[in-house]
Amino acid sequence: MSVLAAIAVLALLIAVHELGHFLAARLQGIHVNRFSLGFGPVLLKYQGEKTEYAVRAFPLGGFVGFPDDDPDSPIPPDDPDLLRNRPVFDRAIVISAGVIANLIFAYVVLVMQVGATGIPEGFNYQPGVAVPQVMTADSPAAKAGIKSGDTIVAVNGAVLPASETAIIELKTAIERSPEQAIVLGVLRGRETLTLTATPEKSSEGLGRIGVQLSPNGDPVFRQANNIGEIFSLGAQRFQSIFVGTAGGFYRLITNFGETAGQLASPVKIVQQGAVVAEDNATNLLVFAAVISINLAIINILPLPALDGGQLAFLIVEGLRGKPVPVHIQDGVMQSVMQSGLLLLFGLGIFLIVRDTSQLEWVQQLTR
User: Fold this and answer.
1) Catalytic residue among 18, 121, 164, 175
2) Residue 252 backbone phi and psi in degrees, to 5
3) For the whole model, what pTM was predicted?
4) What are the structural domain ranges in the chain?
């Protein structure tokens, strides 16, 4: 059920994104002839008065179609309500609406999560540091035998305290030991293990073992004093996630070799969402917000086949005062788009294969 919940969240986020494009066009009176969730063969289809609505076989995206270049469309090419005949600003609204919809959705679900859980008022710390996730199967942590859900309770014989300083002590010990073995006391269920990990040396010269760390224990909440407090905390969390995500993409672009291992396919995203759903149903709202913000930032990047790439063309058109010449759009830029699609598709397939091979049940089959 938790896996289905995570898949449902991804499908909902795709629907939100495409619905943003669709409503931005419809509310401006722009013709829309297709609204599709997924790609590939059509599973379900409904023909409305003006638009065909469809659900397709591969739920890895979606699209909103316009009749501008449809040779079978009965709409004349000079119709002012075709997307291509609208002013630059109108088209920019349609193209950017998917990103805006994802950002608004993220804020709304964060507000819902705050309303459901309450206002944090402290933390009930337990000894050690929790490991929500081991990043990759070939990380030093995975090689040492550390698993997602473990709790590290000691490092080099020093017991990690039941306080907020536990993470700092553990990180310091790891960072100061690049390419040097460290001994970790690990609690897994009721069993205490002694594992040895050898941190990799990062480009900054610090040790890394490839895990996410979080405080061990449970937060303490109180009821909100008023609705304004809920909206305010929701905004703070939105800002924190957005800034952190944008920073992650910046590091990915500027230091790809160091951060490429953090890329995740839909398989990995669903796996993480399932873990979140099992742990706490309200945390699924935070998962939805994080993925929604990621989708927004990815789509606004000025890359071929993304919303940001189309906005880049509109910016050039706005600066020139006239559209980009047709021969450029249909020639050189079409080749760039095809190359971009091939690159994105190839990267997606690689990530899916990699993340599927790292699933625990798949590794058991291949042993």
Assistant:
1) 18
2) -65, -40
3) 0.73
4) 2-30+86-115+293-366, 122-221
